[in-house]
Request: fold
Amino acid sequence: MIEQQTFGDFWTEQKLDVVEKYLSAYTTALKNQSFRLCYIDAFSGSGNVLLKNDRVIDGSALRALRYPFDRYFFFEKNRSYHLALLERISADYPDKLKNITTKNGDCNELLDGIENAPWLSRQWRGVIFLDPCAMDLSWASLEKISKTQAFDVWYLFPLSAVTRNLPNDGKVPPAWEANLTRIFGTPDWKQRIYQQPSQMSLFDNDSLEKIPDGLEAFIKSRLEQTFHTVAPNPLVLKNSTNSPMFLLCFAGSNPNEKARQLSPRIAGHILKNMGGE
Reply:
């Protein structure tokens, strides 16, 4: 029996729709260019997703295979999901198997060295979808992708998971601090997310308070420091109780002026139509 991912709410389909709309626009925009196109899914899952309403939908990997990329790379840490995806690809897209590479492993390790490949000199351009499980993605991986100067990135930042590691009073345990520094890629995150409380306590001078929307603003600024272009309107994805779960962000690594104008414009338009500010 094929193992199938079971997770998510309407936001699951929403994020997948955003990325697929971009893949459609991206491959259309470049269809008459001389570039070879690459798609990388660093958390590719099992292929299909069973939603809470018992609907089964295609995941990001199967959706990407609908579009004319020359190479596809699918990474998945869960071995059962990895094998399930392979089975689905073999059944639904046997003609594309020769252009597909699948890897069972940690995405941070599998992305290591991506910045050293000759993407530009060999006329490669591409899209990477980063949909980490909780806090699995290191910011160092984003920095390596940026150095390729060849990839556009969709990053589903785990707002809820990270927020659970950010106590309201700013007293973050040392073990959590190290993990947060890995996720943010810089040790100065506390100064960007917390501030002195508006009403100081007489007996607790060490307490801080979170800056309203400070985490979202900080992630956007970190992307702007790392990539050449960033869509200005990342999309906050919420669950059925209206609690923020994820921040869907777009960033581009290509320094070419035409790419810097086109990619974020397309991404920003899609995000706006899906509810991004």
About this structure: The chain has a mean pLDDT of 91. Residues 194 and 210 are 4 Å apart (CA to CA).
